[in-house]
Amino acid sequence: MDTLLYEREGATAVLTLNRPRQRNALDDTLRAALTKALVAARDDETVKAVVLTGAGGHFCAGGDVTAMARQAPDAGPFLSRERMQALQRWFDMLVDLEKPVIAAVDGAAFGAGLSLALAADFVLAAPNAIFSAVFSRVGLVPDAGAMYLLPRAIGLSKAKELVFTGREVLAQEALELGLAQAVSPSDVRADALALAARFHNAPTKAIGMAKAIMNRSFEAERQAVYAQEAMAQALCRQSAFHAEAVLRFMERQAPVWRWEGGGLQDLVAVTGRLQKPGGATASS
Asked: Cα separation of 208 and 212, whole Å?
């Protein structure tokens, strides 16, 4: 069985962690597969959005502790450091992917699984979703970018609380903290696909550049952000998307693309399905 399923749903690439017996824990094989899948999604111009999810009722239980225990005892700290650096490289590829990334979290998002969710632009949580910075339980510090992303998502003091305690956060609290943007009461994968479909006709390059700049805005000096903003805008003004959008505006035609509705939680209908543009649901 492939440890990672790469599927297409229209212009959406769906990456499914597929080690259900291990609750989709990350081992070397799955990490290598994720690297290849991210490169494929990045380089395919027909991919407009990415959905990241897990098989078997769980998102990702983190690093594979069993695999860690099998590592040679004489491997030493330098090999461990190299393994972590390799992890960070493909994780950065996910964080920096210049396309909307949606995590559909069902069941456990523990340890590095929490990091995977944080790397997405949007997190949709099933009612049974459980988030935990579980690292302290096994005497480790957060990795896979968690110490960078978690404080930015929920604030420093709350991040410290979750890291120090390793406690579990259920779906509703995750929504309140800002770990998740919406709770899907029925089919979180279908809702994630419906959300991703809303970006199929969006200006992918413009969104991608905006994402890249905002990802670095906390570290960059204000004038440096201004410079990146000016460069990105100059490129976007020359795009075919912008030219058509302006033409349609001048001729009072329907826009090329327009977001319909409010925030993500507002878009979750009573049935638990996010509405696609035009009123169709994810199941239609």
From this structure: 6
> Tokens in use for 41?
């999604």
- Give the global pTM: 0.86
The residue range of the domain holding 131 is 4-197
Q: Which residues contact residue 282 at a Cβ distance below 8 angstroms, ignoring those fewer than 6 apart?
A: 187, 190, 191, 193, 194, 197, 273, 274, 276
Query: Does residue 185 share a domain with residue 58?
Result: yes
The side-by-side arrangement of strands in the sheet containing 4-9 is 4-9, 12-17, 49-54, 101-105, 122-125, 182-183
Q: What tokens appear for 13 in the block?
A: 């690439």
Q: Are 205 and 239 in contact (CB under 8 A)?
A: yes
Size (the chain), residues: 284
Q: Are residues 124 and 224 in the same domain?
A: no
Assess whether 20 and 42 both reside in one domain: yes
The alpha carbon of residue 212 and the mean position of all alpha carbons in its chain are separated, in whole angstroms, by 14
Q: What CATH number did the domain enclosing 57 receive? A: 3.90.226.10
- Evaluate whether residue 191 is within a structural domain: yes
| 149 and 103 Cβ atoms separated by less than 8 Å | no
Backbone angles phi, psi at 140, to 5 degrees: -120, 165
Instruction: Give the residue from 197, 222, 243 where a domain finishes.
Output: 197
Confidence of residue 67 (pLDDT cuts 50, 70, 90): low
CB atoms within 10 A of CB 39: 12
pLDDT of residue 1: 54
List the beta strands (DSSP E) in the chain.
4-9, 12-17, 49-54, 101-105, 108-110, 122-125, 130-132, 168-170, 182-183
pLDDT band at 47 (very low <50, low <70, confident <90, very high): very high
